[in-house]
Write a structure and sequence with these properties.
The complex is a heterotrimer of chains A (264), B (269) and C (302). By secondary structure, chain A is of the alpha/beta class. Chain A is built from 10 helices and 10 strands. A 6-stranded mixed β-sheet of chain A has the order 6-7-8-3-9-10, sandwiched between helices. Chain A has a 4-stranded antiparallel β-sheet with strand order 2-1-4-5, with helices on one face. Chain A is globular, with a radius of gyration of 20 Å. In chain B, 36% of the residues lie in helices and 18% in strands. A 6-stranded mixed β-sheet of chain B has the order 7-8-9-3-10-11, with helices on both faces. In chain B, helix 8 links the parallel strand 8 and strand 9. The radius of gyration of chain B is 20 Å and the shape is globular. The mean pLDDT of chain B is 86. The model of chain C has no long low-confidence stretch (mean pLDDT 85). Chain C has 12 helices and no strands. Classes of the chains: A alpha/beta (264), B alpha/beta (269), C mainly alpha (302). Chains in contact: A-B, A-C. The interface between A and B is medium-sized, with 34 and 33 residues.
């Protein structure tokens, strides 16, 4: 049984005439323990798909089945705890006036869980942050540290699915490497299912098993990690994204060498 | 050149003893956040916030001593001889003026031409950056243009007065991959055609190494290495190597990415 | 002694916290340091603190009974015995001024304490829920906003009858709309912020989000607004007192004192001038304090 099963998902913003259909018709399945990637440029709808999975949008059409249970627009607390989201912007995803401990305490309070201080201590350790960080404010932490806190907050309710919205796009290269390693470790240890949204093909290929390429609200291709690495892809848009991830392609260099793959 | 900022706990040195030359070439400055790369770029144009202290043995641009120049002299230079392209056109364009007017304003300010001539030159420049209907775009406001077009408008505004040096600070970081390619090829053409110097500041290693001729790597306010862009693979400084190895790569997939270990020795300078 | 304060200062400045208490004290201390570096704001703060102390120590600071009448001593000019002279009933103006500070403070604090929470709840709820709730609440707010505040306060005061509690209610009813609008604006700004969405996705309900997340973010602008409002509260109360509503004789109230002194303006200038100056100084102090608070707390200025 698939962990996530999505059929004909459609999400629009606005009503009636001005309704913007951001996600037009999307279907996919994610098995337990698998990492599924959504790649595309801005405005294609990939973050909206993630939001629909998380329980963020209220008007969507189609069917979303998570862990065997059909998801409704309004979810219960235990349903919400199944999948948690990690946001892109480490500066905006933690309340600026709460201490880190307070931020991590909140989900525990909402769900009435016990042994709060121990759980907080444990999760800080799991994400590699020192214990006394629980008394600090977000502005005292670096971008990478804040993302660790965001990951800790997502994991503290012990979800089965982690929804990652460009988790490393706002981070420096060296910090990105640490966070990607951390995500891999946590995933392998807890057997988590990941749905990863990114515009960066290299990150996608690094973490994901299967990838959907999205453009204008639909999937133009769904392929595997191996195909990406070997370059055996079907759709031209995927090729554009792959080429783009290598950097700038100088038209003069290609003209002189007459072999597009020799650049970079 | 060094740049210091005042803070609660004493002066903070953002840029420490950097020395480099830029000719009629594309030079990239790569660094992570806090490396001082943006501060360096701004210091060249003497655009620091109040309280910042810029010291240098020499800051020479063509025939001008930038360190000793007065503020009115600098104002003449900015926008006409040295131009700066910033990351997000949403924040660098005036929201209440049409884009055409803003570009014309630049010409009028520096060259004192008539409004009509400024408009003609603006339209010509907009065409030069591959904007198909310049007359219509002239009348648009910044919030009505997409990111890629906004950056092309920025480029027209910054290049219309024929500068000899452009400083571009993360010019394509806010753009999608396909748009980025277009914008950079326009910039590439213009820089080559007019034979001007370009300083390209970015955190994107792959982009800088594929776009620029030479690369400077900055760490903690210092330049730790200088290389030709196509020789980046043979970098010798451990920080550069660390950066190269920390990137997830489609050509060399690895299970774990190498984590950069910061050696305090790199701070000795 | 100085080393103790030196050590305390270092402990408060350090960023390496070992407890929640230290974290909170650190923030408060930084705010304090910024405030005292602004001389005007500091002056405002000093006056406000002086007002509080004077009100608290009124019985000890006044040298005569504020309501004791002695018609033989009516309208005496300022002297060594009666520092600000006497009024038409022979009461010591200085002592009435001191006790009047209590009334002023009472009215300002009471109005603020009522208006802050109520304005916030109305505005934040409208901002959070949106839709028809927003429309209804905001139109109600608009109705109250469309009247000039003094006229509205007069109308309510007259309808409710004289008396200080009725004056407080009347003034509160005119002061809450701007707070509600402010709370609504701030809530709308933060409604879609990632950290609010994160809390919602973890099951947080509206109450928790408004109280725990939005309040700390709105608090600076609302506090600033309330502080700046203080001066107009004092002036409105003085205006009501001037017109005979609000505090009733013989309770000393600065506005009422200035009013009754009007008819003796030429021969006994101190009757109107002294309470008038007091109103001016305190209003100005609150304004300066509010401006100073805005400089340090408003994130836009940072």
């Amino acid at each position: 049984m698939a962990m996530i099963k999505v059929d004909n998902l459609a999400v629009s913003y606005g009503h009636g005439h001005d309704a913007l259909r951001v996600v037009k018709d999307v279907s996919f399945e994610v098995a337990k323990g698998e990492t599924f990637g959504l790649v595309g440029e801005s405005g294609c709808g990939k973050s909206t798909v993630l939001g629909a999975l998380a329980g963020r949008n209220k008007n969507w059409g189609g069917s979303v089945v998570i862990n065997g249970e059909a998801a409704l627009p309004k979810r219960t607390k235990s349903q919400l705890a199944l999948q948690q989201m990690v946001f892109q912007d480490p500066f905006g995803s933690i309340h600026p006036r709460h201490t880190i401990g307070r931020t991590l305490l909140e989900p525990l309070e909402i769900h009435g869980l016990g042994q709060r201080q121990e759980r907080i201590g444990q999760i800080l350790q799991d994400v590699g942050l020192p214990h006394n960080f629980r008394y600090r404010f977000p502005h005292q932490l670096s971008g990478g540290q804040r993302q660790r806190v965001a990951i800790a907050r997502a994991l503290i309710l012990k979800p089965q699915i982690l929804l990652l919205d460009e988790p490393t796009s706002a981070l420096d290269v060296s910090v990105q490497a640490e966070i990607l390693n951390l995500l891999k470790d946590l995933r392998d240890r807890e057997n988590l299912t990941f749905v990863l949204v990114s515009h960066d093909m290299a990150v996608i290929a690094h973490l994901c098993d299967r990838v959907a390429v999205m453009q204008d609200g639909i999937f133009v291709e769904v392929t595997t990690k191996r195909n990406l690495l070997q370059g055996t892809i079907a759709h031209p848009y995927t090729k554009t994204l792959l080429d783009g991830s290598k950097g700038y392609v100088s038209p003069r260099r290609t003209k002189s060498l007459a072999d597009p793959r020799a650049v970079s | 050149m060094s740049v210091q900022f005042p803070s609660l706990s004493g002066a903070v040195t953002a840029v420490r003893n950097v020395s480099f030359k830029v000719g009629r070439e594309k030079v990239g400055i790569i660094g992570e956040s806090g490396s001082g790369k943006s501060t360096t770029g701004r210091a060249i144009m003497r655009l620091q916030p109040q309280g910042a202290l810029v010291t240098a043995d020499r800051m020479q641009f063509e025939d001008v001593d930038l360190l000793a120049a007065s503020e009115p002299q600098m104002r003449n230079i900015r926008g006409s001889r040295i131009s700066m392209i910033l990351q997000d056109p949403k924040y660098s364009l005036n929201p209440v003026m049409t884009v055409g007017e803003q570009i014309s304003e630049t010409v009028i300010l520096h060259e004192h031409v008539s409004k009509r001539e400024a408009r003609t030159r603006t339209l010509a420049m907009l065409e030069r950056v591959n904007i198909r209907d310049p007359e219509r775009v002239y009348t648009l406001f910044p919030h009505e243009v997409s990111g890629g077009m906004g950056q092309r408008i920025m480029i027209s505004m910054m290049l219309i007065s024929q500068p000899s040096l452009i400083i571009a600070d993360e010019p394509t970081s806010a753009l999608d991959v396909t748009v980025r390619q277009q914008v950079l090829s326009i910039l590439d053409d213009l820089v080559t055609e007019r034979n001007i110097g370009l300083i390209f500041i970015s955190h994107d290693l792959n982009l800088v190494r594929s776009f620029c001729d030479r690369v400077l790597i900055m760490y903690a306010g210092r330049i730790v290495e200088t290389l030709d862009a196509d020789k980046l693979e043979q970098a010798s400084h451990p920080y550069t190597r660390g950066l190269l190895n920390a990137l997830p790569s489609l050509e060399h997939p690895r299970d774990r990415l190498e984590v950069l270990k910061r050696d305090p020795q790199w701070l000795e300078n | 002694m100085t080393t103790y304060f030196g050590n305390l200062h270092d402990w408060l400045i350090s960023e390496d916290f070992s407890s929640n208490r230290q974290a909170r004290l650190h923030k408060a201390y930084l705010l304090w340091l910024s405030l005292v570096s602004n001389p005007l704001a500091l002056a405002g703060l000093v006056v406000v603190v002086a007002l509080v102390i004077v009100s608290a120590l009124a019985p000890w600071l006044s040298n005569h009974d504020p309501i004791a009448q002695d018609l033989a001593l009516a309208l005496k000019p300022p002297s060594a015995e009666y520092w600000f002279g006497t009024d038409e009933f022979g009461r010591d103006v200085y002592s009435r001024l001191i006790y009047g500070a209590r009334t002023t403070l009472y009215i300002s604090i009471l109005v603020t304490v009522i208006v802050g929470p109520i304005g916030f709840v109305i505005g934040a709820t409208a901002g959070y829920l949106g839709g028809w709730v927003d429309v209804v609440l905001m139109r109600i707010t608009d109705i109250f906003l469309s009247f000039p505040s003094l006229v509205l306060a007069l109308a309510f005061s007259a309808a409710l009858g004289p008396g200080i509690e009725n004056a407080v209610i009347a003034i509160a009813l005119t002061v809450w709309p701007p707070i509600a609008r402010l709370a609504r604006a701030e809530t709308l700004t933060f409604r879609q912020a990632d950290f609010v969405v994160a809390a919602e996705l973890q099951g947080a309900g509206m109450r928790r989000i408004l109280l725990r997340h939005i309040v700390p973010l709105c608090a600076p602008s609302i506090i600033i607004r309330l502080t700046l409002n203080m001066s107009s509260i004092i002036l409105t109360a003085a205006g009501l007192g001037f017109l005979g509503l609000g505090a009733q004789p013989p309770m000393p109230e600065w506005g009422a004192m200035a009013a009754s002194g009007r008819q003796y303006l030429l021969e006994a200038w101190w009757l109107t001038t002294v309470p008038g100056l007091a109103i001016l100084i305190v209003s100005l102090a609150f304004n300066l304090l509010g401006d100073g608070l805005r400089d340090i707390m408003d994130p836009r200025n940072a």
